[in-house]
Automatic annotation (TrEMBL):
Record-stated family: Belongs to the glycosyl hydrolase 28 family.
Designated name of the protein: Pectate lyase superfamily protein domain-containing protein
Annotated keywords: Glycosidase, Hydrolase, Signal
One MF annotation (Gene Ontology) recorded for this entry: polygalacturonase activity
Amino acid sequence: MKRSFSLVDVLLVLAFCGHIAWTVKASSQCKQALSREIRPHSVAITEFGAVGDGVTLNTKAFQNAIFYLNSFSDKGGAKLFVPAGRWLTGSFDLISHLTLWLDKDAVILGSNNPDDWPVVDPLPSYGRGVELPGGRHRSLIYGRNLTDVIITGDNGTIDGQGSVWWNWFQRKTLDYTRPHLVELMNSTGVVISNLTFLNSPFWTIHPVYCSHVIVQNVTILAPLDSPNTDGINPDSSNDVCIEDCYISTGDDLIAIKSGWDEYGISFARPSTNIIIRRLIGHNRNGSGIAIGSEMSGGVSEVYAENLYFFYSSTAITIKTARGRGGYVRNIYILNVTLVGVDTAIRFDSTFSPHPDDFYDPNALPVIERITIKDVIGNNIKVAGLLKGIEGDTFHHVCLLNIALTITSGSPWNCSHIQGYSAMVSPETCEPLKESIYPNHSSDCYHLSNHLRSSVGILILAISQAQQQPHHQ
């Protein structure tokens, strides 16, 4: 169905883009990506026999180049330069103290032969492949136990050529879980910047068990009907910064995860200290920002601001279920602009695929201290579908300064949820109607008394004025 843009839509887009132009200049809490950092040693992939014709398989060239550069890892590191061309390859490993640099017209192409994507063990926090029992295909660009890794360039491209994998998935002919485009495991000091990522077979960028990760100024694209082509999935990782990205895929733009049911509970590696800023994108079958559904190791301290999602299924989602265990707490999301989104906020407690029959159905997730503020939206079908779990109420959900133009007759649907609100239009559901101010700001994450916004102070003043006796 063709969509038409109203004047209000256009004004919202212009206003948001103007806001981005200002905020990009503002100081950032995230360290800037040192994408042009000079490594003392540098080689080009062509020096190892690579041919950039889009036909010749260059896996050995990448492997040999990185093997050679490993000798410089203790001498300040090295850079592997990929010049203009179309460089077909299978999966290859990175090393510590390496910069993988793609020139402006360089394209790394993933092979269409599944044998060029080796099968590796499942992640211990998942216990099996996400899609199928057993192992999983290794990502195109892979690394584990690394320090100081930079994947960057002059907006070069990494193209997974995922359509063959999507077809195998839809026909149910896969033997193992599909590969990611980039996966780094147990690594620290990771920078991914100034690149375009296309057509991942599965999730696109997957830092798992990592710390100190920066993803900046990347574009991630896949067809809107491509299955499970998430953009960026921090997984059991801490101190992650995602800034200035445009993502348009077939599933979640960003999905924060931390393991699956009993395996995630046992592995006990949470995702924490995640910052997301200046994200623009859309999808048809996922969310702008999702937490879960695999969140059994816990997710906390997530700060997201300056988000713009258009013509998407859902803007903000927490996905969980009985048997997940774990927790999602201390989440702060603000300055969100929405156009043509089906559901603005969704808590889905029935997202119940389990890895096997050994999960504990009595392992209930703890969902608490979720604050969402300063949201505007036009042409929104539903403001919120907020569903907790019977016997496991989601606590201290706080909504502040939200104004949505709703096209359906039932803007809110809430159950097994408790919290507060202020300045929400259309009026929120009964479990959230109690006002944040003056008594509950300390119950709302990041809205404690000493951090009260001017809006909150104004509401308090109005409330006090209304309680004064009126004189004729």
